[in-house]
Amino acid sequence: MVRMVCKSCSDEEGVAVFFEPVLNGVKVRYGKHTGYFYADLYRCPRCGREIITGFSDAEVFDGVPDYDYGE
Ligand SMILES: [Zn+2]
Fold first, then answer.
1. What is the dihedral sign for C-alpha 22, 5, 53, 47?
2. 21 C-alpha vs ligand 1 centroid, how far in Å?
3. Domains in the chain: boundaries
4. Which residues in the chain land under pLDDT 70?
């Protein structure tokens, strides 16, 4: 499992504040890709900042992406 620390919250709290998994398998389209990729959504429990990481290698073309950051 990937472990990620929110640096700004950890600096302020003086202890490591880890991002927590929110959803596995979100569909993300980005750049010039016509399809999307599966990835995982994490959130910092303190500041609420969200990050998407853990992208799959395989591009998927059926269905609709949850998040579309295409150009
Ligand atoms: Zn934070």
1. positive
2. 13
3. 7-70
4. none
